[in-house]
Write a structure and sequence with these properties.
The complex is a heterotetramer, with 2 copies of chain A and 2 copies of chain B. By secondary structure, chain A is of the alpha/beta class. Chain A has helices spanning 4-7, 20-33, 53-56, 69-79, 91-97, 99-108, 153-159, 173-185, 207-213, 226-233, 253-256, 258-261, 272-276, and strands spanning 42-45, 60-63, 85-90, 113-118, 164-169, 190-195, 214-216, 240-247. Chain B is globular and about 85 Å long. Classes of the chains: A alpha/beta, B alpha/beta. The complex binds thiamine diphosphate (2 copies), iron/sulfur cluster (2 copies) and magnesium ion (2 copies).
Chain lengths: 283, 617, 283, 617
């Protein structure tokens, strides 16, 4: 049996006390629960503290460019639609630099699981505002405080009809794991926005701040009601719901591409004679 | 001076047989058929259908064809033209004179009548042009009326095609076949109507143009007719490409169209990305997962891909990018041609990493070099760039034979049982050659870790100087050495011991070659054509540099303003070319214009009165 | 008095019958109604058929790169927050290539008016699917029909709390003009998505198709109710509402930047002595 | 051989006075103070605070300082260090030997004790390192305990700073002043506590290190201490920059931090963009609207800006980009240094357009050249690139005087009344020089139309060849000629008639210069330093090429693997450099190591036993 230890990779370069440790652990536990061994998954990431995660668990990894994990993940899924793909990304990586890819990956409904370590700050580059930083937060680059409205990933994902939209929090380890398991089990694009304390740079949204606000959404909540889900997505402040906020059963990209429906591309051998047939078309 | 073809210097694959024929004809100095048809009109008037059909009919009739297109960045209106040259001998450039001008609008007459050759004809329909021309050289065909009578008013272009064949005195059979093929999917009625309209046009012209002066050569064995964009597409498939992701951008969109069409019957997946950044990252993902992948774009899109190019370099992920150049900077002339991005392609991307840059000269080279780019990219796990332009992408060439021989497909991946036997796989294992085994993730218990940070052999982030040094040596220095050996020297064509050398790269291949044909053997002249530009070929190994040093004049001909190849040759060899011909108006070189310019140089070289009268035609 | 003729620029290179002509006219009329002369506005555009518009009306123009009109417009507004700025863009330009900028310009609430000529297709590049192409549409590049879910700009803009979100249609010239006037009068980011027939490449969403479906939203509709607006944004198919779907009164970017609140940057002269003062800090 | 300074060849602005001093000292061969302090520990332990404070205290005491930083891409843990060298004469590079190692963790001792000079000392606190060292050369200071006793336990770094000054036998006054300044905003209590902790550390070291061997020069007039990133920021303001938009990326973020801080009191606006594409397009928008603008990034972000760079080229919109290089490709070593993007910067962007590329060698040049880049960009309406790297961005240098003299600010815009008088304004009017008047939109009834397509004089889209030709000549060919005249030839330093020439560019300026100081006058040697790289300077005009031709050996020293400047020199002049020294491990050149390498070359040149013993220190 695979144990958590089998999943542990390099020694993390994160700050002691960082929320990322809880995420790492929950991912390991989720994969064990799913019965997936390290070689049976691919973890794609961009650049940032979050994006270092694949070095710290054992897995197949493509650690690419800042903001560009999703297209890489999409390419992987088209090449090989049998292997589960997870993206580990940050709020800057996914909602800032990579925002356009998020929009369109959701539209495609490619079967990729995106776990956003949302610490509401740029951690790796030492504390500039991210799209999810709350208005008014003062940083070196925003000496007058953040002006732009805080980005609401849940609301946007619902607006784009994302097939699985969840929020979780580092303050609730059990919940984190359960969201990961459900996201991976879900066929289609799954977004899990994870509230993650950055103890070094985000002095506003701390462990305590999240702890005091976060609550699990009601058991009987119906995530298929889009308008109610949207309404719920607006809840932020005194109380912040975690759980699956929205979901649907749209067809996934991989199932709608005829050439990979039967067999992954990677398993279809090259046959030059089939290409040679096209030559006669030029005559 | 015996024109030199083949032999030691002739290194590129392809058109050997054809060259011999041209030279033979050139030597015999016989007058041979060489007609140019220009179809002019507004965007949306169906110029391309007429041009495509005529080119196909000529090729089917065994005539060699060269066509090029000149169009604006709009969907209706403006002024476009399609120019087809055909001959019984290979042609590979456009000329400035026109024999038949099919004028779909008045502007075409105003703009192009000056280009008419002595006995040239202008075909038009006064009912649509709202003008009548009584001068000699005009043939009015009531295209719309004939179409209305014999089929439907929308078929007047078919009447124009039929009329053109009638003027030329060609057989109509190949056209009827072509129409049948074009319209088969629309039902027998449409086919028949088009055919009768074609016949009506044909007969009208035959009867009403008694002094149409055209003398055709004997038809021959059908020839293959290939457009540059299709050639890149076919080469991609031949090189094993199974995934193509791109964002539409002229002049590369045709590659995506070709592959998307093929995806209906062949296991290749085409995905339109939301932007070019996504396109290149998608293909890197697919390549990492083990599937050969490619993208295509133009300069603006390539700019956006540059970060991904560096990612391919760092992660050692194979990637092929077709860069179809158009005149820049920025949006520039979106539908026109230029060779302004050679140095950009060579040095694009942050940090240092090896790449291959190929610039095919004709569609056959495009097939071969695209397939080869995929092979080399996968063999060495590096990015490769096919550097081409609107001119080649939109041009058609004919070939007597066509096959994929000469393309290679080796599966370089470590997979299946071979991989299962490995237990200590390291993605960036340090090897003698610098190339590490390339395993497929998920195919065995081995983990495949790729990383954009500096990394150790396992693919994990490092910070130390030693590993960095090792990885730079592996990734950049060693591989570069290996890849250098894969690069063929430039193609030489013409005199073995030339006094004058014309230098070019990429899509100017055809026009420069024809200049050589025309100036030999009166002038001791040769072409040096570069289609493999990075790593830069060794010009000393096979004596190219010596030829340059010995020649009285070496002229670098480029479709750009700054003479980028000339600069590159100097950077790589120290050799300073004696002259440059640069054209940067967004149009391709025309054979006759280039001949003039070369003649100016020859005159400066030999003294007044030394202009060479082109040997034939 | 400025008349429509004063506003007409180069001869358009659009196809006769294209919906863009209606947009051009309506913009001219709106500017006249607003009393703005050509030199008093700046029109920014990207690349596409839509993006050619500034050449066809008289105005100050920055016709930039495909997808990048919004950052240019933002830069202009920061440099000179006294001049009204309009972006003319297409569905590919704004929602495809430029998606990330749209998200963040909305968040900033920069006072820019974005008029999206939404013909649900890539016109200039001859008929590939755009983000708003309806599922199933067959093109050369999508021979099996469009797979991804149609992008809903209205829903997304609401999710991002855009301060002015409207839809209009080339089939209702009066409405178009009125939306333009209201957008320009609105302080803050204004998105007007315009249903625009592309008669050459989009054979599905034709003049008739829009005409049959489009209706003006009720007079008493309250665009400030975000959840109801979201619900309304989902209406697409048999009936398509046009009008101001959502709006709010968030503070605009330009008013929150202290250095330009009093005086536009462009009017603040350079004074080297003020820079020289900083030298002593290095001692 | 008289070392040559100043005069005809000495063309760059800046440090003339200082050079004379160094040379004088060098000539006198007196032993001068030259100490190196290294502070090592984990990220987050406050290494930078210690380093910054010490550097400031030294500079205030009139000592010349050079500092550089070596850190990892993480926020806590790992291993970082900060190295400060100080002397009574100008220093401009780091050395390999260390005089005082402040070890905040055990790793620092393990990694760096080998670098200790003969009489060097290691300072540590056994309570935090959980280790005690009894060997000679260790000075244990109970930093935490002293801090706890005299202030608060978090102030142990202040104790370390005090201790260091105690070991050196310096006055404590400047430190107390610095602490007062650092902590003023936190209240008198914090200031006082820090001061007493500093005093406690100082006294402890004074008493407990009787054999601390350091002999200090007389303190002098306070010097200016400037870090590269601040210099670019100040240069930006001096050049009139009023809008800076960027996306955070090491090592350029410091520029944004500096300007954001200044925006509190000075009318400059800093906007953090959502990505680099947005950043460059924002500054183009602001520049079009009439405000001088700038952005900064590193290689990956620059890759994303490349399309915008071409847009600046086509629209003729002034733009300045600071490209802070780090080792690539891709993410590479995010916090380290390299000079791997020279050719990329030179040729980035699709299509052909002129640009200016400046690579400052020190902070003073960074100020001057950044201001100049803004001026030239606005004068000619072109993009300009400041090409620098992590090494310069994070290094501190001292200067005896500092002013903005030599920077220019001319308002090239057509605006106000001047503009109001114009009634036929055309944004791209064809002028003799190629530069069109640059009007501000909205400031008059004139319309200002900029276009990324090929355009006519009014800025509207065209398709014709003639206009294209005119615009290419205006935009690219004519302007390039003009800008060429603005470019200063490389700086020469050392012998007037050198037998050995060391060539470098950008941030290697300091270390190469110090090598020259050390090898002169025993060796007939000079430096040729390039800080203006595009358009490439004319090396013939002032005899540079002749010097190269006459020298026995010309060595190109670059912080990259492929020798990009060497290639560029060959491309531009045909001259092939005789040797190259390349370092690509992500670290800067250290003076002593480079001296060794040069000596190896000298030995090959002159024969065994000819190593030059550095003239001083
Ligand atoms: C193209 C590019 N731009 C900028 C950077 C610098 N960079 C690295 S990580 C990062 C932001 C990280 O923020 P986030 O994604 O929230 O991750 P976190 O560190 O907070 O987990 C930035 C701006 C980069 N690596 N590449
Ligand atoms: C970076 C870049 N990629 C691609 C293109 C090619 N291109 C020009 S317009 C366009 C799409 C136009 O679609 P849309 O924005 O919907 O405008 P429309 O023509 O339909 O009005 C594309 C892909 C380009 N100019 N630049
Ligand atoms: S900086 Fe913040 S996000 Fe990064 S490792 Fe430290 S605590 Fe975690
Ligand atoms: S292609 Fe479509 S959008 Fe473009 S001008 Fe023609 S009708 Fe209008
Ligand atoms: Mg973050
Ligand atoms: Mg469109």
């Amino acid at each position: 049996m695979t144990t958590l230890k089998d999943y542990m990779g390099q020694v993390p370069a994160w700050c002691p006390g960082c929320g990322n440790f809880a995420i790492r652990r929950a991912i390991g536990e989720a994969l064990i629960e799913l019965g997936l061994e390290p070689w049976q998954i691919i973890v794609v990431s961009g650049i940032g503290q979050a994006a270092k995660l694949p070095h710290y668990i054992k897995c197949n990894t493509f650690n690419g460019l800042h903001g560009r994990a999703l297209p890489v993940a999409t390419g992987i899924r088209i090449a090989n639609n049998r292997i589960p793909v997870i993206c580990e990304t940050g709020d800057g990586d996914c909602y800032g630099e990579g925002g356009n890819h998020l929009m369109h990956a959701i539209r495609r409904n490619v079967n990729v699981n995106v776990f956003v370590h949302d610490n509401q700050i740029y951690g790796l580059t030492k504390g500039q505002a991210s799209p999810t930083s709350m208005a008014g937060m003062v940083t070196k680059v925003q000496p007058n405080g953040v002006i732009a409205e805080m980005f609401n990933p849940i609301a946007m994902a619902i607006a784009l009809d994302c097939s699985f939209v969840a929020r979780s929090s580092c303050t609730d380890a059990e919940h984190l794991k359960s969201m990961f398991v459900q996201a991976i089990n879900h066929p289609g694009f799954a977004l899990v926005d994870i509230l993650q304390p950055c103890i070094t740079f985000n002095k506003l949204n701390t462990w305590q701040w999240y702890q005091e606000r976060v609550y699990r959404i009601e058991e009987d909540y119906d995530p298929e009601d889009k308008v109610r889900a949207f309404e719920r997505s607006l809840e932020w402040g005194e109380r912040i719901p975690i759980g699956i906020i929205y979901g649907n059963k749209r067809p996934i990209l991989e199932d709608t591409i005829p050439n990979i429906r039967q067999k992954p591309l990677i398993d279809q051998p090259f046959d030059r004679s089939r290409v040679e047939e096209f030559i006669s078309e030029f005559l | 001076m015996i024109p030199f073809v083949g032999g030691d210097f002739f290194v590129n694959p392809g058109r050997l047989g054809i060259i011999e024929q041209v030279v033979a004809a050139s030597a015999k100095k016989i007058s041979i058929m060489d007609y140019t048809i220009k179809i002019g009109g507004e965007a949306g008037q169906g110029i391309q259908t007429i041009g495509d059909t005529l080119a196909k009919v000529f090729a089917r009739s065994g005539y060699h064809v060269f066509s090029h297109q000149d169009y604006e960045s709009r969907v209706r209106g403006g002024h476009n033209f399609y120019q087809i040259r055909f001959s019984e001998y290979p042609v590979m450039s456009s000329r400035s004179g026109v024999d038949i001008l099919i004028a779909l609008d008045k502007a075409s007459i105003d703009l192009h009548r000056g280009q008419l050759n002595a006995s040239g004809m202008i075909v038009y329909d006064s009912s649509s042009l709202k003008s009548k021309y009584e001068d000699a050289g005009f043939l009015e065909i009531p295209l719309a009326a004939l179409a209305g009578q014999h089929g439907s008013p929308v078929m007047s272009n078919t009447a124009a095609i039929g009329g053109t064949l009638g003027m030329l005195g060609m057989q109509i059979g190949p056209l009827l076949d072509a129409l049948e093929q074009n319209f088969r999917s629309k039902g027998a009625d449409v086919v028949e109507k088009n055919q009768s309209v074609a016949r009506a046009g044909y007969e009208y012209a035959s009867i009403n143009c008694p002094d149409c002066p055209f003398i055709l050569a004997e038809p021959g064995k059908p020839l293959y007719l290939v457009r540059g964009e299709e050639a890149v597409g076919l080469g991609a498939l031949a090189g094993g490409c199974r995934f193509y992701s791109a964002y539409p951008m002229t002049p590369s969109t045709g590659i995506m169209d070709y592959l998307a069409e093929k995806s209906k019957e062949y296991p290749v997946v085409v995905e339109q990305a939301e932007d070019e950044i996504s396109a290149i990252n998608m293909i890197l993902g697919a390549a990492y997962a083990g599937v050969r992948s490619m993208t295509g774009t133009s300069g603006g899109g390539f700019s956006l891909m540059v970060e991904g190019l560096a990612l391919a370099g760092m992660t050692e992920t194979p990637a092929v990018i077709c860069l179809g150049m158009r005149p820049g900077p920025a949006t520039g002339f979106p539908t026109r041609t230029e060779q302004g991005e050679l140095l950009f392609a060579l040095f694009a991307g942050h940090g240092e990493f090896p790449r291959v840059v190929f610039a095919p000269g004709d569609p056959m080279q495009a097939i071969m070099l695209t397939a080869r780019a995929l092979d080399i990219a996968n063999k060495y796990q590096i990015p490769a760039i096919i550097l081409t332009d609107q001119h080649l992408m939109d041009s058609e060439w004919t070939f007597e034979s066509m096959s994929l021989e000469g393309t290679h497909h080796t599966d370089y991946r470590l997979r299946g049982e071979e991989l299962a036997d490995v237990h200590d796989y390291r993605r960036y294992a340090l090897t003698e050659s610098g190339v590490s085994p390339f395993a497929v993730p998920g195919a065995s218990e081995n983990l495949v870790v790729e990383d954009s940070d500096e990394h150790d052999q396992d693919g994990h982030i490092v910070e130390d100087a030693e590993t960095r040094n090792e990885m730079v040596r592996k990734r950049t220095i060693k591989k570069l050495q290996l890849i250098r050996n894969e690069i063929a020297p430039p193609l030489l064509y013409g005199s073995r011991d030339p006094n004058v050398i014309l230098i070019g790269w990429g899509s100017t291949y055809g026009v420069i070659r024809e200049v050589i044909d025309r100036l030999s053997p009166e002038e001791n002249i040769a072409m040096m054509h570069f289609s493999q530009l990075s790593p830069f070929p060794d010009l000393e190994r096979e004596g190219h540099l010596q030829l340059l040093n010995q020649a009285a004049i070496a002229i670098c001909i480029e479709n750009n303003a700054t003479g980028q190849l000339a600069g590159l040759i100097r950077a790589e060899t120290g050799f300073q070319l004696s002259a440059r011909i640069n054209k940067y108006d967004g149009r391709c070189f025309l054979l006759d214009d280039l001949l003039e310019e070369i003649n100016d140089h020859l005159e400066r070289l030999h003294g007044a009165g030394s202009r060479v009268v082109p040997g034939m035609r």
